[in-house]
Design brief:
Elements lengths: L1 E3 L5 E4 L7 H9 L10 H12 L13 E6 L7 H10 L3 E7 L4 H7 L4 H4 E4 L9 H20 L12 H4 L2 E6 L6 E6 L7 E8 L6 E6 L4 E4 L7 E9 L8 E6 L7 E6 L7 E5 L21
Parallel strand pairs: 3-4, 4-5
Antiparallel strand pairs: 1-2, 6-7, 7-10, 8-9, 8-11, 11-12, 13-14
Helix pairs in contact: 2-3
Pfam families: fn3, VWA
Keywords: Collagen, Extracellular matrix, Secreted
Protein name: Collagen alpha-1(XX) chain
Length: 296
């Protein structure tokens, strides 16, 4: 299976989509690069919540491996999301290219780091990792399978979280030009924390708030006016993550001055008057000579 991410993660294909090597290689040839921000924590949460579930092709008896490929430092908390995966017995390999943060790669990856962390200076050099990484991955799968066969316990991802672990009924209210209020109904089992992620739908730097699991409301402030925002609420447990709640809403536009009037004309002056714009603290007045005069 494969997902791409920037501000918003996107599943390219599930674990069960293709059944032959040639099909996967063909899909890779047709893959289009998704540019944008580096929101690694949200991407890892997406993999756990969407890609490693039975309805996406994940088999309970199979070993779970995640290979993270990134060319930059994460703009959110990648370590918290990675720890959720590792707590569930999912092994993470971290591969950095160009501007990746090696300290962050080591935080995210599973032990032993000498087998799970790789860093190269540019994309063409990734080909030099293929042979070694393939051998390491196959060896790790065999080792983990052997441990399972000898009676060791392996944690499985919950098959269905449902209302037991997932909040419901996200409501967005009290929307202004720069703020909004979120409320939701908590799951039957209170989470340890909530991760609230929000960002403009047309691009922009995602922001994140972490709340105590006993809280089920939040006011988002310092937003941009007249902008559509995507909002996600994720419940975080010690060994699982519940399904996220998602919502979309737009902030109000800033109010404008109205009824512009011109009076008291003279050979070198004019007087302007208008109805005030609510909330405005200053006005910027520009004037230029028509039709193509320079601005004064």
């Amino acid at each position: 299976g494969l997902s791409q991410y920037s501000s918003d993660p996107r599943t390219e294909w599930d674990l069960s989509t293709y059944s032959t090597r040639d099909q996967v290689l063909e899909a890779m040839k047709n893959l289009r690069y998704k540019g944008g921000n580096t929101f690694t924590g949200l991407a890892l949460t997406h993999v756990l919540e969407k890609n490693l579930k039975p309805d996406a092709g994940a088999r309970l008896e199979a070993e779970k491996l995640v290979i993270l490929l990134t060319d930059g430092k994460s703009q959110d908390d990648a370590n918290l999301a990675a720890q959720m995966l590792k707590n569930l017995g999912i092994e993470i390999f971290a591969i950095g290219v160009k501007n990746a943060d090696e300290a962050e790669l080591k935080q995210v990856a599973s032990e032993p780091l000498e087998l799970t962390v790789y860093n190269v200076l540019d994309f063409p050099l990734l080909s030099s990792l293929v042979g070694r990484l393939t051998r390491v991955l196959c060896t790790r799968i065999k080792e983990k399978s052997n441990k399972e066969n000898t009676g060791s316990t392996v944690k499985d991802i919950p098959v269905s979280t449902g209302p037991q672990l997932s909040p419901t009924d996200l409501k967005i209210s009290a929307v202004t030009s720069k703020s909004m209020h979120l409320t939701w109904s908590p799951p039957l089992r209170p989470p340890k924390k909530y991760r609230i992620v929000y960002y403009p739908s047309k691009g922009g730097i995602p922001k994140e708030v972490v709340l105590d699991g006993a809280v089920s409301s939040l006011r988002l402030s310092n937003l941009t006016s007249d902008t559509e925002y995507l909002v996600s609420v994720f419940p975080v447990y010690d060994t699982a993550v519940g399904d996220g709640l998602r919502g979309v809403t737009s902030t109000l536009p800033l109010s404008s001055p109205r009824s512009l009037r011109v009076s008291e004309l003279s050979h070198n002056s004019i007087r302007l008057s208008w109805k005030a714009a609510q909330g405005a603290t200053q006005y910027l007045v520009l004037c230029s000579a028509a039709p193509n005069g320079a601005e004064d």
